[in-house]
């Protein structure tokens, strides 16, 4: 009789242990899915931030490039005027 009670108790403990392990496994699976969704969200946010930063950088550099072109053009025009003025003074002195 004690052996049968011991076996029944052991079976009940095994059932309880299996239920606990199953519950923990479900919770871990749920946590893994949640972590995967968070990671995916972070990847999407990171991609969005990078795209925005690239766009802003391109826009900023484009503006700087236009400024440099205008400044270079201004310097070229000033150089031509100085050269013309120098030529006029030289011709006047000769």
> Could you say which overall geometry the principal axes of the C-alpha atoms support?
rod-shaped
Strand content: under 5%
N- to C-terminal distance:
136 Å
Largest sheet: none
Give the H and E element order: H
Which stretches are low in confidence, meaning pLDDT under 50 for 5 or more residues running? none
Total number of strands: 0
Overall average residue pLDDT: 88
Radius of gyration: 40 Å
Structural class: mainly alpha
State the helix count: 1
Task: Please bin the fraction of helical residues.
Answer: over 70%
Short overview:
The chain is mostly helical. It has one helix and no strands.
Give short descriptive properties of this protein.
single chain; 94 residues; mainly alpha; 0% strand; rod-shaped
């Amino acid at each position: 009789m004690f052996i049968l009670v011991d076996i029944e108790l052991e079976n009940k403990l095994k059932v309880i242990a299996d239920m606990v392990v199953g519950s923990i496994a479900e919770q871990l699976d749920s946590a893994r899915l949640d972590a995967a969704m968070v990671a995916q969200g972070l990847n999407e946010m990171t991609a969005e931030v990078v795209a925005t930063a690239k766009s802003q950088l391109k826009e900023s550099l484009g503006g700087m490039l236009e400024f440099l072109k205008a400044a270079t053009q201004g310097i070229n025009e000033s150089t031509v005027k100085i050269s013309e003025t120098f030529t006029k003074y030289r011709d006047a002195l000769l």
